[in-house]
Structures are given as C-alpha cells and as structure tokens.
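Example 388.
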Amino acid sequence: MKDRIYKIVIKVGSSSIADENGINVGKMNKIVEQVTELKFKRKKDIIIVSSGAIAAGKSELGYRYKPYSVSEKQACAAVGQGVLISKYRDLFAVKNIKVAQILLTADDFSNRQRYLNAYNTMNALLENDVVPIVNENDTVTTDEIKLGDNDVLSAQVASLLEADLLIILSDIPGLLKNLGNPKSLINIVEEVTPELENLANGKSGKLGTGGMSSKLKAAKISNASGIPLTILPSYEEGIITKAVDNIENTKFNIGTTFLPKDKKMSKRKRWIQFSLKPKGELIVDNGAREALLKGKSLLAVGIVSLTGNFSIGDLVIVSNKKGENIGRGLVNYSSKELKEIIGKKTNEILTFKDNVGPEEVIHRDNLVIMEATEGFEPSNNGFADRRL
Ligand SMILES: Nc1ncnc2c1ncn2[C@@H]1O[C@H](COP(=O)(O)OP(=O)(O)O)[C@@H](O)[C@H]1O
Ligand SMILES: N[C@@H](CCC(=O)OP(=O)(O)O)C(=O)O
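Predicted structure in complex with VHF:
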C-alpha cells in the first residue's frame, strides 16, 4: 500500500444523499464539506461516483414505491440525474469547486478505446481542478451493457485511474458479522473469502441497489488493483476526513478497510479480468491446464471443446472438463474458425487459412489465470452470466 494518498475515489450510495423525499441537501452538504477539506487542506484529487438519480427521480415523479420495472427505473433516473447533478453543482459552487458529469455504461469499459478515452478525460478534469461526478448511464442501459451497480462501477473507476484509495459511503458502520449488531463491525479484511461473502445477506437498504454483496465484488476489484477500499458510515460527522487521516497513518479503526494485494495485476490484465463480458468458453485438457498455470499461452492442441459464438479479440473463459474455471483471455480465432482447429498441433494449424492463423489461440499476455489472483467467481458452466 502507498505511504501517501493523493487520489481518492469516493462512492456515495443513494442512502447517503437521499431519503424518501428525494435528494437530502443536508446529507449531500456533509459530503461536499468534507470533499472541500480534502481538496483544499489536504491537497487530494477527488473523484465522486454518486448514486441517487433513481431516488431523486422517484420523488420528482411522485412514486410512492421503489420503482420496479426497468423502464420505470430508467424514467426516474432520466429525471433524477439532472436534479442530482444540479444539487451537487450548487453546493460545490459555494466552495468554488467546479464539477463535471460523467455517465458511463459497461461498454465504455469493455471497449479499449473508450476505456482509454474515459481515462484521458477524467485526468484532464483533475488537472483542471474539477471534481468528476460519475454515475451509470441508467437511461440507456439494457441488461446487455449494464454495469449493474455503482459499487462495482466505483472500483472500476478507481482501477482505471489508479487511485490510492476507494471510499464507499453507505448507511451501515461497515461490514458487520451480524447485521443487527453494530458492535460486530469487522475493521480489517485481508481477503474476501467465501465465509465473508456469506455475511452479505443479499439484501439492500430501502434506497440502495447492490447491498453488501456488491461492495464485496468491488473489494475484489480494488484488491487486485492494489487499491485499499474502506466502507464508511456516511451519517457520522467528519468520517471521511478522519478515515483518510487514519489510513495515511496505517490505522484502520474506522469502518471496514479491505487491504490491497502487494502484487497487483497489470492494468491490461485488470481490464481483461474485470471489464469484459465473456462471449464463450473453451474446455481444455490437463496438459493445457498445467501449461497455462506455468504462464504459457493456450494452443489449439489442448482444447477439447468450445461453446458460444465469439469473434477474434473477444473474451472467453477457460475451464477444464470438471467445470473448474482456470482463467479468461482474448481469443485470436473466431468460434467458427476455432471449431476447425481444436485438438490440432501447431504445424497442422499453420496450414489453416493459407498460413495466416497465429500459433496461440490465446497469447499469454492476453490471458489472466485464476490461480495468479484471487477473488474470482467459480465456474458454473454457464459463461453467459458469469461476470463481475
Ligand atoms: N454483513 C453486512 N454488513 C453490513 N451491511 C449489510 C450486510 N449484509 C447486507 N447488508 C446490507 O447492505 C446495505 C447497504 O447497501 P445498499 O443498500 O446497496 O446501500 P448504498 O445505497 O449505500 O449502496 C445495508 O443497509 C444492509 O442492509
Ligand atoms: N445509478 C443508480 C444507482 C445504482 C446503485 O448502485 O445504487 P446504490 O446501491 O445506492 O449505490 C442511481 O443513480 O440511482
């Protein structure tokens, strides 16, 4: 972990800035005050990932219940996002801070060019002393391109920008062993284990979306990216500034801090692992599995079968016959081409398509092996819904 913290991503959950009546300016102002202090007194770069569009739109449109259908949610988000950003703008303007609205979809992370564009734009905003305020572009997202939750989005943004700290503000003291007992708070987590995942009961609060389980998914991403993640109770006065001071002094006594791995994954491998949606699955034999674990590329000879419909450059999952997930990577062949060469030796493939086929089906630089990092989801033999 870095000694000094320069760049902080702060994720604000719906419950931290809104209530039944929409945006709660008092709650939002508490956050604005602390961000101002971090920026001016402690000289930090701050990026906010803020939820609250649906909660704001819901009250504007007079919904008495949590919107249910996708189109209801999208309508609320379309109305509410404007309200949300204008409230932030007004409160930050009083502090002489400019804000920018950034709306992202999963596509912006999976398309390498757009991913790098988002990186450049956000850096340019930081250089201009602007606070970017990011949210998912709910109005246009369908299941296909949905990131799903702002906890995961905040970890993606922190990873993209190589932040030094990710803070998730919520309506709980942190990760609790027993949800009803604030004294059961866990202060430090070194690794997100299945036992820990069992503590997340799957429910979210009245306004929230992802609950604790999506915060644990975010922890896996930030963990692999070498970034500490701290969950804090937004309702406590001055909690963000206090926590940042403490973390800089390696004190982890406020909220729950997930410590990062010493050895972080490379940016490209993080992009492969966390930003792309698998389009297929390759089943490999034991010899191939051994080779992959030793850091070699995947060759056609070790592939037993495949599923899915993918093109060159798409992400596929690599599993063994038992359905165990070995890793994931970018393929050099389409599924149609690959069907013709699986099980074949390299010299047989080189005659394929007039010698144009590359030797590797997945080059090791484009391959992330499960054993090399932790916190991967186990294979469930259905690649389509297996994504972080
Ligand atoms: N083990 C746990 N410890 C703390 N909170 C938990 C746990 N399991 C589930 N939760 C739920 O997670 C909720 C916070 O997530 P969420 O509702 O998505 O809020 P936010 O809008 O802040 O993201 C809490 O209100 C709580 O009900
Ligand atoms: N994009 C949605 C928020 C989705 C979300 O993750 O909400 P939350 O669990 O409150 O952080 C919105 O602005 O309402």
